[in-house]
Design goal:
heterodimer, A: 67 residues, mainly alpha, 3 helices, rod-shaped, B: 156 residues, Rossmann fold, 8 helices, 11% strand
Chain lengths: 67, 156
C-alpha cells in the first residue's frame, strides 16, 4: 500500500464522495474517479473529431464516386 | 472472447464514416479499446472534409495527432509500397498509390485494416502479402458484439 498526501479541502471532498459512492475504501473512490476521468477525456476527444452527418455524407459520396 | 486485434488501421472512407456525429459513442469505445492507426490518405480525406467546413487545418491536424496514431511517411513505408506495387505490376495490374499507402501502413503497423464495404474486392489481392482486413459493416457488427460482451461482464 502507498500513501498520498492531500490538503484539508480535498480530504473533506473525497470523504464526502466516498460516502456518496458507498465505497468501501479510498482506493475504490480513486479508481472510480480515474475511470470517470478517462470516460470524460474520450468524450472530449470524440467531440473534437466528429463531423455533422450530412456534411460527412456529402464528402463520403464524392470520394466514393471518385474511386 | 474478443475476436478483434488491439491494433486497427482505417481506410479513408471508413475513417470518415466513423467520424460522423451519429457514431460518436462507437468512436469513443474504439478509442478506449484499440490503438488506431491512420494512413496518410485517411488523414488527408479527413482534412479535406474539415477544409470544406471552413475549419483551421493546423488545429485539426494537431487534434488528430493527439487522438490517433498517424502512420508517417518513412523509408520503411516507401519500401513496403514499392514491394507491393512491384508485385502488382509483375501481374500486369496498375497500382493505385493511395491504396498502396493504406495497405503498406496497415502491414507496417501490423494492424487490421477496416475498409469501406464497396472497396472490399480491391483489397483482396493484398491478402497474399499478409494484409488482414475487414469490411466497415462487419467491423461495426464485431464491435457491437464486443460491447454486449463487456456489458454482460459488468452485470455479472
Amino acid at each position: 500500500m502507498k500513501t498520498i498526501a492531500v490538503d484539508e479541502e480535498t480530504w473533506k471532498a473525497i470523504k464526502q464522495l466516498k460516502a456518496k459512492l458507498d465505497a468501501k475504501s479510498y482506493t475504490e473512490v480513486l479508481k472510480k474517479l480515474i475511470e470517470v476521468w478517462h470516460s470524460v477525456e474520450l468524450d472530449l476527444k470524440a467531440e473534437k473529431i466528429v463531423v455533422d452527418d450530412d456534411k460527412a455524407d456529402m464528402i463520403i459520396s464524392l470520394l466514393e464516386d471518385s474511386e | 472472447m474478443r475476436m478483434l486485434p488491439e491494433k486497427i488501421a482505417l481506410d479513408p472512407i471508413s475513417f470518415l464514416k466513423l467520424t460522423r456525429k451519429q457514431n460518436k459513442e462507437i468512436l469513443e469505445f474504439i478509442l478506449a479499446e484499440f490503438q488506431v492507426y491512420l494512413p496518410v490518405p485517411a488523414v488527408s480525406s479527413y482534412l479535406i472534409t474539415k477544409i470544406a467546413l471552413g475549419k483551421d487545418i493546423e488545429e485539426e491536424l494537431k487534434i488528430l495527432r493527439e487522438v490517433f496514431n498517424i502512420v508517417e511517411t518513412s523509408d520503411d513505408l516507401m519500401k513496403k509500397m514499392a514491394e507491393l506495387g512491384g508485385a502488382l505490376v509483375q501481374k500486369g495490374i496498375a497500382p493505385n498509390f493511395s491504396d498502396l499507402i493504406v495497405v503498406a501502413s496497415a502491414l507496417l503497423t501490423e494492424s487490421l485494416l477496416v475498409v469501406n464495404d464497396k472497396h472490399v474486392k480491391k483489397y483482396e489481392i493484398f491478402s497474399k502479402y499478409g494484409l488482414d482486413f475487414i469490411s466497415y459493416t462487419k467491423f461495426l457488427e464485431e464491435i457491437e458484439s464486443f460491447v454486449e460482451e463487456e456489458a454482460r461482464k459488468v452485470v455479472k
